[in-house]
């Protein structure tokens, strides 16, 4: 299904919903707060500013602007990445906007409103001998275990290493992107994989330390994750996000974090191909 057809599906779903759908659920409206939880280890999407210890990032800015337009305040909490989905399912969070990829395997109990292009990308230490991605065949490559990246690495390895007679990539798990970069700096792995949206920031924070190898080797989207039975909240957030795209405030947030090229033209429902 194309991006256009996904957008049309989202528009049709919104049109088929009653006029009251674009209203906050009564309990959120009455409380005047949104409960949101993030994994604050994924700069520049969400992280603790080392200078102020404040929660900052692209997702934080987008969520704050959405909350402003919804007329509510956000009560933030933090959790490991692996606990983001349980936080949504147990209603500790009203929705999830925390660098989480839209994946078919996650849609059994949730819907994604996709708002940012992404894709896994190899990177190495600057002095690595690897020039092309195929130089990583047979090498140890680390990534965060709870993301979609281990599956994408395995798929890429089969297509680009094993089918040509080269040894498979050796996947090494990490707890989060910080852990993976530390493993790389310590020489425990030869290369690493993170979302393409995070690497420019990592390179800016440690100039000359890392080198990207090749282009993103899969295409996907990050999405705002909603419970299946929370259509009303999903629709009102989609409406506000659509308005942010139209008036330029969405693009301004992405540009602030150096990710204007990752923008989408419209929010899309469950649009990622995997």
Report on this model:
There is one protein chain. The protein is α/β, with parallel strands linked by helices and 274 residues long. The strands form four sheets. A five-stranded mixed β-sheet has the order 9-8-10-7-11, with helices on both faces. The protein starts with a helix and ends in a 5-residue tail after the last strand.
Features:
274 residues; alpha/beta; five-stranded mixed β-sheet; three-stranded antiparallel β-sheet; 9 helices; globular
Count of distinct strands: 13
Average pLDDT number? 92
Distance between the termini: 11 Å
Largest sheet: 5 strands, mixed
Content of β-strand: 15-25%
H/E element order = HHEEEEHEHEEEHEHEHEEHHE
Tally of DSSP helical segments: 9
Which stretches are low in confidence, meaning pLDDT under 50 for 5 or more residues running? 12-21
Structural class label: alpha/beta
Please state the CA-atom Rg, rounded to the nearest Å. Answer: 19 Å
How is the largest sheet built, in terms of strand order?
9-8-10-7-11
Shape: globular
Fraction of residues in helix: 25-40%
